[in-house]
Amino acid sequence: MKAGYIFLVCCLLALAAKAQRVSHDFRNVSLAEALTTLAERSTEYDITFLYSDLENIMVSRSVRNMDVLAAVKAVCKGQDVKVKRKDRCVFVTLKEKDEPFALYGKVYDNKTRNEVPGTLVELLTMDSIVVSRRVARSMMISDKDTFYHSDFSFDVPRRDASYILRASKPSYRTSTMAVSIGKIGAREFSRELPPLLIRDNSIMLKEVVVSASKVMFYYKGDTVVYNADAFVLAEGSMLDALVKQLPGVELKSNGDIYHNGKLVQNLLLNGKDFFRSDRKALLENLPTYMVKEVQVYNKRGERSEFLNTDIPNDVEYVMDVKLKKEYSIGYIANVEGGTGFAKDHDTPYLGRLFALRFTDHSRIGIYANVNNLNDERRPGESDSWKPSDLKEGTLRQETVGFTYSVDARNKKWEIGGDTQFSHSVLDNVQTTQRTNFLSTGDTHERILQSAKNKNLQLDTGHNFKMKSDYFTFTFRPGFQYRRFDNTSGMDNQTRGDTLINSFSSKRLSKGWDWMTGFKANSNIRFSKNSVDNIWIDVFLLNRNRKEDLFNRYSLLYAKDKVQDYADQYYKNHPDHHLETEGRIAYSTRLNQNLWGEIIYQLKHQYDNRNSHLYRLDRLQDYEQGELGCLPSVAEYELGIDWNNSFESRSSNTDHIATWEMNWNKRTDKGKWWAQCRFPFTLRHARLDYQRGAVDTTLVRNTFLVGSNNTFLQWDSSDRKYRFYVQYWLDNRSPDLMNMVNIHDDTDPLNIKEGSRGLKNSFAHRYEFSVDYNHHDRWGISFGNEGGVTTNAIAMGYTYDAATGVRTYRAANVNGNWNMLTGVNFNLRLPHLRVGNMIHYSFVQNVDLVGVKKTTDMARSVVRTNGINEVFNLRHSFGQQQIQAKFNGNWRRMTSDRTDFTNLHVRDFTYSLSGVFTLPWQFQISTDLGLFSRRGYGSSELNTDDLVWNARLSKSFLKGNLVFMLDAFDILGNLSSISYSINGQGRTEIRRNVLPRYALLHIQYRLNKRPKKK
Question: Is the pTM of the predicted complex or chain greater than 0.85?
């Protein structure tokens, strides 16, 4: 019996020893921190909570000799949380509230306007009684680095009340700010507070330099921040060189920027709209040494900023270039000039000026650029360049521009604008080899074309914005003038088994066009704090054009040895285009998670075109002289060709009603976002057309239904996972011009005829993607997209094999569809980046081709299977960087037609590039690429071209003076070839390009800051 008591006592002692007891004093710490401390000390329970939900709840509690579960309940007592236990798991979550009203804001330094994280913010009644406390801090983690920001928020009752905000932090003076809520809208759930400013009370110490490893990029909330100093760039590099290196960013040749496949809609400078009309001016002229960081984020649109809430679809995806502090206020200038030599080409030259005055509320910029390079490459910069990316022809251009912007400190108004003048001369030589797929046997064409285009252009655009508590108004007028003078020539031979025809022509086109117009919009709300709003915008564009075109050709039909020639003068004027558009939209928040919007839009377009053709060769006693010289008006009007002269007046009026719903919801695990957008269009189209014996009026009323950007998206709270699916429906009506019964033989080898009975086309498209990112170190994504078009409008043709004449007619075809699927993988380490992309694509192209004019056009179906593999490796060490890349494209074209020869085309690119610092502070940047082609129709196109470019640079005067020596295509192997195929044939094009050249240029930097007061 005694032994039994001893055994029971031992068991109780063991159980008491097993139950963990904790003691701790928590003094003014966040509940999240307190729970983290308890979780670290507990082996008996797993404590689960969402850190971001509880980090702003401050607790002060003493825990004395409690078990872990009791300690959790003690620190949570009196807070808006609930504690739930299930087996070994203890869950701590926020209590659910009915439609809380949130006040949120940020704390800033009064002088620098930088955020001050860690500030204690207290919400007090007007009697100075503390209602709640928050630490203004939010945390972002990238790699091993943690970044804090000064966000805070308070939940308050939904009623008109006044409060005091009090901010305190060591080394800062305690600051207060009065807050009056006022009337709360029925569907208003949160409100942003004015900036809470605190004054620095510290003493300035001597400067201390701290060296640390540079983080390439990190996340600041939903903003991606790229650290410019973490990228190794060649001396003298401009902003475009930096943008090309940013992970996940692609810069197109036309200046379009894509981030993770999404188009960047605007390029900002220090958060301000600058160089809107020509972003390439900023990309190509802003030196990278001025840039501190580049941010990519979703910026609120005008409506959302005005209403101080996020309105669905009123968001602009932007790239914001932040300047270093020493360049943010004052004057900067960057001047560059250079010249060199090129083999069998004019002496290359380059001149550039970029000057900028920038303050917090005003910006003035001047830029100028002259060169004859037509080449945006810089050695060592681009890892994705290939010969087919070369600009066609050789170009001489001069550009000068001016841009300005001024805004009020109270943000009530803003004015800005830009003006650009440009002149260019483009010389282009192009050789085309084309194979036409025909049931009676393929034919082959060899076309040699040359052109010289001269353009003089003036562009100017301005904007004025103003804002009050109840409305906004924006007005943007613009004007463009262009004068052109173009000459061209062409020689063409068409062969089957023997020569079919030979054609040559010379053309001269002179004229001008000008456009003027404006955009205006206004946002109106019914009360100061209401989210219900009406959006009104108006658009007007007026264009006039005048063109005199001369064409001289000779044509030989080889079979009958018939010779034909013509001297044609086209008087293409007056041409007038008018486009107007008005839209009114009403949007409202139906509940905390659901937005609705209805839109009515009226669009009208009017075109008046006149083209009179005069056959000068048919005039009596006509003698062929210099192209472009005309006899008297009375003489050449006698040679008018009425069958190929026309007057056309067309109009389209669209009434568009759009219904849109947006739903978003945040949960503990992530954010859901869904959108449905359905436009319904009633289109009235009218065409009055006169041409020879044709005098007709066509009227067509069409009802179109579409689906515009309907999607579902989910993002996890930790930014690791993303799911996205989207669907589009594009419903289009045919152009009435394709339905006029005409016979246009102004080009004797390419005749156009009308086609009645064309139907509306329907294009269905979808996109699906799943992404996973592991702490920004590595990521993998899978995507699939595709589309199918029914009743696609194809310009089919019948072919006369005896003469080589094509007769084109529009027709509806079915069977066009495409699909693309792929996987992307990225590894991002401090000094190493590895990326691999593999995509498979399928395209089925359906066209119509017939032989002889009397037979119907038959379907020609070509299927293209493609695989694209891209592997990229970049390693940086100190001031050195080296990169290797492989890009492989495999394409196989097949068809069920017996006369079709299947093709298997392969393009491979192997490239090495790098930037290296040499002794005596010299720097070399270079790239070496091998471009291989296989499977092309001509043996001369199946080549291996080794292309090598290099730049040697040296800086002086503390980096303000830079000498650069560029050498392009050092081995002289560069060529430009493009290839395309569809159901009608395949085409191979070779263009003239800028030959190898060397260029020595000098860059000087000037920076002047205002004197300190």
Answer: no
